[in-house]
Model the fold of this input.
Amino acid sequence: MLKKLILPILILTSSAYAGISEVKFYKNDQYKSKIKIYVFSEKRYYDSSEIVPKLGGKTYWYSVSGKMIIQLKSHKISVEKKSDIVKYDDEETVEISNCIIIRGGKVFLAEDIFLNPAFSKTMGFRLEFSESDKALKMYEKINISSIRYFSYKDKTRVVIYLYEPLEYSVSRQDGGKFIISLIGGSYPAAGENISIDDGIVKSVSVSQEGKSAKAVFDLGENFSDAQIFTLNNPDRIVADFLVSKEPLKNRIGDLPAITPDIKPAVSDSSTVSAVLPDKISPEKKTKRKIFIDPGHGGKDPGGNRIFGMKEKEINLDIALKLYDMLSKRPEFEAVITRKTDIFIPLNERSEMANKSSADLFISIHANASRNRKESGFEIYFLSEKASDPWSAEVADYENSVVSLEDDSKIYDSAALVLHSLAKNEYINEGSLLASYVAKNFEKKTPFKNRGIKQAAFYVLRGTYAPGILVETGFMTNSADQKNMNDSKIRKKVAEAIYQGVLEYADKKGWTR
Ligand SMILES: [Zn+2]
Done:
């Protein structure tokens, strides 16, 4: 009896809405239930008491102020009847007119609240309305974490950071557009447009198309070619957009006649040398800057020794030998943080490298341990986390010099975060360099290989270049210390690092 009475009332209430339709609600491509869509003034709304529980959240309604807080796990969205501003986690705000409508004692929320990029960015999952399926789809899994770019003289590197490896396809479109489709990719900020405007790449925009995320690169006038590859730890897709070579008309091979004062602008050496064998100056290439950092110095002697040379002296001698070797190579410019026994704070060392835009950073040290039996060399590359407790201890020890510094200028946390974002890119490069150096160290020196390790060294952390830290041997082990006191062996150490750099450079195509 009661049911019969209620039913007509419900229908009456419903008919007061401008339009209601029912669509399917999917969670991660699985059908879950139906959900109602209400249309008021040609805009789509959901009933807050229906949609929010489906998303796994709760609502708090403040009737006096006309405000609703939508709590989704640890995130919240606040919407107000009086305001068109929707706030996401107090971080992002989006203007949505008439975001709330109250009818028949119910609070209706504009669809835009859930479909805009700020929602997925802050909430960690995204919603999509599929017109063809007539369905509201929720994707819980976000597997693309962020997109960053790095502008260099010769290229623009765009890195798509992933939470898991994703397959991708690459295509090119007319009008200077380049597209990477990430299959199964889900990006929290779909719709985002990242402006780069460095002449090579104008911008990157990311959109979500069904099960794929699409990154569309709008290319600039200097673009010539792209190289796309994947790296791991963290998983990422790297897109290098290379700068175009000199325009054709400037190439010597294309000139109608050759006059003596022509300087070839390009490296088309086979053509050039055939025509002008004696007049050609060597092709001009940008030299790669190798930054060498002998650890410690001045009032900071470095690790405790049992006899012989101090750590700062061993480091400096190896560094100077390496400096001489690298300086002889035409493709490198060697730079050294200190040539004498002076104290340089750690942050200044990395600042020096950054200011002169180093391509590689090599810090040279010697190890120490309470256990005199510990011996051998270790090559470290930068990582946020140490690979084992010992590595953490070595890093802590080398970092302890920070407290010795006159002007203990520690980076503030915001700067550190920025650094850690930028240098993420260099971790893999550092590990590659470390492996080449370790291989040669093992071959050329008497020191036992203790392996390649990861640790968060202060001096590497502040550097915007792939970097390694070499711990030659143990100051606290008599055999190691004896070897380090020997100038011929220190030369072998320098040679091992040098050879490692050469192999790395070769791999990177720097020597070509
Ligand atoms: Zn040291």
Notes: Residues 13-139 form a domain with the Copper Amine Oxidase; Chain A, domain 1 fold (CATH 3.30.457.10). Residues 295-296, 302-303, 311, 365, 398 surround zinc ion (CB under 6 Å).
